[in-house]
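Q: Structure tokens for this one, please.
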Amino acid sequence: MKTLKTLGAALVATMTVGAGSALAAECETITLGSAISLTGKYATNGVHAKNGYEFAIQKIDENGGIKMGDKCYNFSVIYYDDESKGDRGATLAERLINQDGVQYMLGPYSSGLTKAIAPVTEQYGIPMVEAEGASRSLFNKGYKYLFAVLSTSEQYLASAVTLAAEKAQESGKEASSVKVAIAVENDPFSLDIRAGVKEDAEKYGMKIVLDEKLPRDLSDMSAILTKVKLIRPDVLVVSGHSKGAATAVRQIGEQKVKVPMIAVTHCEAADVVGNFGDFANDILCSTQWAETLTYEDPIFGSAANYEKEFKEAFPEYTNKTVPYQVAQASAAVYVFKDAFERANSLDKDAVRDAIAETELATFYGNIKFSENGNNIAKPMVLRQIQDGKYNVVAPSEFASHKLNWPRN
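A: Here is the predicted structure, written as tokens:
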């Protein structure tokens, strides 16, 4: 760890090379850069993402590094703490490029931070593979150097709307009878989720009976939940990253909010089971990845093996479900390895072109980028917390368990 001081503040930069292999001494280094949230409101997921990057670096090193011709390389990452602030993230991206000489970037955490950094990497022609910015608004700007391994945000809770329609019909009602309540953070990611839920609800003729923004600091949604209790919707959708998920599950339990179906983003990252116990039961949680899925690759093995080995490397996750933010961060590093090897070059534009042509099967899912840079090869899945365990319940082709419904 080395500390760099600039702009009158302490900026932390971590130079990390995958450990444990004799190859580390023989291989050259490819330096990646990342401004990531290690403090501030996104710190929980920023740390998850950083851990996912580090685990992938370690696994790639253990498997012989990045091979180009008769040379091999290992990844090294310079991290700066963006403090969960977009303007700081953009400034740090400039620093990484102009002062540290970084030619390839890993993304920050959140759509908002990615939106702040993307114009910088685009200006300098720096390929950025990001794993934590899902807002579809990132992919309508014409960026040529931005690539995302995750599914876009409007897909996150689409399955919840479909499930609500199915349950209404099973009960002898019309799908259009379903009443939907929405409470989201006022940020690009959550606003896209809101838009996606509204679009899906409109397809079924469902009525939006509540459409609220969470408080700015995400620490109290009791006033919104009081309205929910009065309106009595059939579905409640909440999106506010980890802090919002924690607040929602805690206060839903404390206020005894009874809604047949509650769907929340970022459950695993907020560890709502570990923190709130029975309050979390039967909550539906959108996820980009689950350890029960049948994906696999030569570096990480199966999805289940990834979870096992990650927990061995990071024992602080031993008694938790590994958040998908971790897994997709590892997938982003894997995309870089694959692109460097296919490009057989360190030229950033050659690497960019190789990334654009990616068709990669991974433990996280299939990865193929559209012309706009979003991943078009991997679906979202929906898990339900059942007796403290996260079980996949939708879509049906991925389901490992039956849905518990109604929740209360």
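A few notes: The chain has two domains: 2-151+291-368, 155-287+381-398. The chain has a mean pLDDT of 93.
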